[in-house]
Write a structure and sequence with these properties.
Layout (H helix, E strand, L loop, with lengths): L2 H11 L7 H7 L11 E4 L9 H17 L2 E4 L13 H11 L23 H14 L2 E4 L3 H13 L18 H9 L5 E4 L8 E6 L3 E6 L6 E3 L7 H11 L4 E5 L6 H11 L5 E5 L2 E5 L2 E4 L11 H6 L3 H12 L3 H7 L20 E2 L2 H14 L2 H15 L1 H9 L1 H8 L17 H5 L5 H7 L12 H10 L7 H14 L2 E2 L2 H6 L6 E2 H13 L7 H8 L1 H15 L2
Parallel strand pairs: 1-2, 8-9, 10-12, 13-14
Antiparallel strand pairs: 3-4, 4-7, 5-6, 10-11
Helix pairs in contact: 1-5, 8-9, 11-13, 14-15, 14-16, 19-24
The protein binds one RNA strand through α6, β6, α8, β11 and α12.
RNA sequence: GGUCUGUUGGUGAAGUGGCUUAACACACCACCCUCUCAAGGUGGCAUUCACGGGUUCGAACCCCGUACAGACUACCA
C-alpha cells in the first residue's frame, strides 16, 4: 500500500481523532527532575483489592521514587472491562493507604500527566495507532476467532510457534480496496501490529534486576487495538510510560516474555526506552511443589489478611523490605533504631528467582516489633485492632486500661524485652490473667498440668511474708527464706544435690503461686504481676483456685 | 512444543576466579543462665554449592550439555 493510500485508510478508520501525536508530545513534556530521579508507576487492574505481589511491586515503586527524589504515580489499567469490579479502584486505594503507600500522582490526587485511568485515554492510543497505520506499521485484521483458533491448532500440531505472523497473517497485505469492501460489509476487525521483526535476529535487553537477556526478535502481529477500539496492555504500556515519562518500569516477572514486543513498539513509535526491572514472583510451598502465591487459593495473599489476623502493618513492611533487598535484614539488625526508609535500596540486591513467602520470618519480625513498643503503644494499637475485630475485648481493655498498660510493660525496661506477642490477637490470650472478668471466666483453661498445689501454704506466704513494696531481689530472697522455713530448698541446685532432705524447692512454691494467680504455668515476671494485682486480688484468686481444684 | 529465567542447609539468602575448612537471619536441637516462660549466651545443623563434562595452577563463581522448577506463549493484565 502506498503512503497516500495508508493516509486514506487512517482517515477511514479514525475519522474522529482530534489531535495528532505532536499535540500529545507537547502536552506532556519531559518532567523537570534532578539527575537520577526515578519516575515509577504502579498499574493495577481495578479488581477491588491488592494482593501480596502487587503490594510488593508498589512498595518497590514508592521506595525507589522516594529515595531518588523522583515521582511515583498510580495508573489504573482498566482496558479490560471484564476484570473491573465495582468500586474496585476504591479498594485499591484503601489497601495501599493502609500500607502507607501514597502515589504522588493518581486519579485521586491528580497530576499533570493524566488522565490516570486508561479507559479515559482511548483517544490518545488511537491517535498513535492512526499514525502507525500511516507509517505502515499497523493494519486492520478481519480474522474471526474461529480462523485464529484453527491456525493455532495447526501450529500446535506441527510444533511451530503459535500466533499470527508471517504467512499466517492473512490480512497483513490487504489492498485498500479489499479493506474498504470488508468495512462496507460491516465486518469486525482489530488493529494489529505489522511487525518488522525477524525471529532469526536477536535483541538484547538489559534488565535492572536480571541483567542482560537475549531474545529472538519479535515477529508476531500482535493486537494493538481490540475490536472495541480499546488498547491491549502492550500498546497502553508503551504509550503511557512514554507520555508519563516513566524512567523505571518495575513490574512482575511474567512480563519479561513480552519484552521483545515492547522494545519493538518503542522503536517503531520512536520513543526512548525506559529502564526495566522485573521482580521475581512471591512463591509458596504447596503439596511439595512451589508455586506463585495465588490470591484465590491463599488467604495470606490478600493484603487485608494481615490486618484481620492482627499483624502490624509496620511488620509487614519490614518483611517486604527484607525480601526487597537481601542486605536489608542485616542492616536493620545493626540499625534497629532507624526507620527502614533510611536504608538505600538497590536493584542489584533484588532476588532473581522466586522468593518463598516465609510466615515464620514475618512472625519473628512482628515479635521484634512488639518487643520494642512501650506498653502504652501496644495497648493503643491493640485497642484499635480489637475495636474492629473483637468488640467485647475492646470494652474490657478500655475498662482496665491502666492495669493493662502496666502488665504490658512488664520486663519492657530491660535490655532484653520479652518477645511473646506476634499479633494483636495474641494479647487476649497471653494476658488472660490481666483482667479479672476474663480470668475468672476462662480461668485455668490455659493450665493443663495435673499437679494440685496446696493453697494453705501459698495463702500463708501471701498473708505473712509477701511485701509489695520491696525490690525484686528482696522479694525473691523472702520467698527463698519462706521455702527453707517450710522444708523446701532455696534453690533447685540445692534440691538436686540432696532431694531427700526437702519436699521440693523455691521453684515449686513459685509455680504454685503462678498457677493460682495467672491460671497458667508460664508467665512473665511473677512479682511484677503480683504487684499490679495487689494482695487482695491475689488472695481472691487463691480462694478461687481452692474452690475449683481442692474441693 | 517454543521462548526466556532460575537451581547454594529445613527456610530466606551472602557469594561476581584464590581472603570460603560457604556470611548473616529465621526455624530447629543441645547446653548455660534461671522461680516458669520469653529474652540473652554458647554450640550443633550444606565436608559442599542440582548433575555430568570442559577451561584454569586454582571454580559455588567462566563455558557446554543434561535434569528439575518457574514464567510467558489471548481481542487478560
Amino acid at each position: 500500500m502506498e503512503l497516500n493510500e495508508r493516509k486514506e485508510l487512517a482517515e477511514i478508520l479514525f475519522p474522529n481523532i482530534k489531535h495528532d501525536r505532536a499535540y500529545y508530545e507537547e502536552k506532556y513534556p519531559e518532567r523537570n527532575l534532578k539527575d537520577g530521579a526515578m519516575v515509577t508507576r504502579f498499574g493495577p487492574s481495578p479488581t477491588g483489592f491488592v494482593h501480596m505481589g502487587s503490594l510488593f511491586g508498589s512498595f518497590c515503586d514508592s521506595v525507589f521514587a522516594r529515595q531518588s527524589g523522583g515521582v511515583f504515580y498510580l495508573r489504573i489499567e482498566d482496558t479490560d472491562q471484564k476484570r473491573s469490579v465495582e468500586n474496585g479502584v476504591e479498594g485499591i486505594f484503601k489497601d495501599l493507604e493502609a500500607f502507607d503507600i501514597k502515589p504522588d500522582e493518581s486519579s485521586v490526587v491528580g497530576g499533570n500527566y493524566g488522565p490516570y485511568i486508561q479507559s479515559e485515554r482511548t483517544e490518545i492510543y488511537q491517535s498513535y495507532v492512526k499514525d502507525l497505520i500511516v507509517q505502515g506499521y499497523a493494519y486492520p485484521c478481519f480474522m474471526s476467532e474461529e480462523e485464529i483458533n484453527s491456525i493455532r491448532e495447526e501450529q500446535e500440531l506441527s510444533k511451530i510457534k503459535v500466533g499470527v505472523y508471517g504467512s499466517f497473517a492473512v490480512d497483513r497485505d490487504l489492498s485498500l480496496e479489499e479493506i474498504k469492501e470488508r468495512l462496507a460489509k460491516k465486518m469486525e476487525y482489530v488493529i494489529r501490529l505489522k511487525s518488522p521483526g525477524d525471529s532469526k535476529k536477536e535483541v538484547e535487553v538489559v534488565d535492572c534486576i536480571k541483567g542482560k537477556i537475549k531474545f529472538p526478535e519479535h515477529d508476531i502481529d500482535t493486537v494493538l487495538l481490540k475490536k472495541d477500539g480499546t488498547p491491549t496492555y502492550h500498546l497502553a504500556h508503551v504509550i503511557d510510560d512514554h507520555l508519563m515519562h516513566t524512567t523505571h518500569v518495575i513490574r512482575g516477572d511474567e512480563w519479561v516474555a513480552s519484552l521483545p514486543l515492547h522494545v519493538q513498539l518503542f522503536q517503531i513509535l520512536g520513543f526512548k526506552m525506559p529502564n526495566y526491572a522485573h521482580t521475581a514472583p512471591i512463591t509458596k510451598k504447596d503439596d511439595g511443589g512451589i508455586r506463585k502465591l495465588s490470591k484465590r487459593k491463599d488467604a495470606e495473599a490478600k493484603v487485608s489478611y494481615y490486618e484481620e489476623v492482627g499483624i502490624p502493618i509496620e511488620a509487614v513492611k519490614l518483611y517486604l523490605a527484607t525480601i526487597l533487598n537481601s542486605n536489608f535484614e542485616e542492616w536493620y539488625l545493626n540499625n534497629s533504631d532507624k526507620s527502614f526508609e533510611e536504608f538505600t535500596f538497590t536493584f542489584d540486591k533484588m532476588a532473581i528467582g522466586g522468593t518463598l513467602f516465609d510466615l515464620d520470618k514475618l512472625n519473628n519480625i512482628s515479635k521484634t516489633y512488639f518487643s520494642r513498643k512501650s506498653g502504652e503503644e501496644v495497648f493503643n494499637e491493640t485497642l484499635e485492632y480489637t475495636k474492629k475485630f473483637d468488640l467485647e475485648y475492646a470494652r474490657l481493655l478500655e475498662e482496665n486500661k491502666s492495669d493493662m498498660i502496666k502488665f504490658l510493660n512488664i520486663e519492657k525496661d530491660s535490655s532484653r524485652p520479652r518477645k511473646d506477642i506476634s499479633k494483636y490477637s495474641d494479647v487476649k490470650e497471653e494476658f488472660s490473667y490481666a483482667i479479672d472478668e476474663l480470668f475468672y471466666k476462662e480461668n485455668y483453661s490455659k493450665y493443663t498440668g495435673d499437679k494440685k498445689y496446696s493453697t494453705t501454704l501459698i495463702r500463708d506466704y501471701v498473708e505473712s511474708v509477701l511485701d509489695l513494696d520491696v525490690s525484686n531481689e528482696e522479694w525473691f530472697n523472702d520467698i527463698k527464706k519462706f521455702s527453707l522455713d517450710n522444708g523446701y530448698a532455696a534453690s533447685p541446685k540445692e534440691y538436686k544435690q540432696d532431694s531427700s532432705k526437702y519436699k521440693g524447692h523455691v521453684g515449686d512454691i513459685c509455680e504454685a503461686l503462678r498457677v493460682m494467680v495467672t491460671g497458667r504455668d508460664k508467665s512473665p515476671d511473677l512479682f511484677s504481676i503480683v504487684k499490679i494485682l495487689g494482695k487482695d486480688r491475689v488472695l481472691e484468686r487463691i480462694n478461687f483456685y481452692e474452690e475449683k481444684y481442692n474441693k
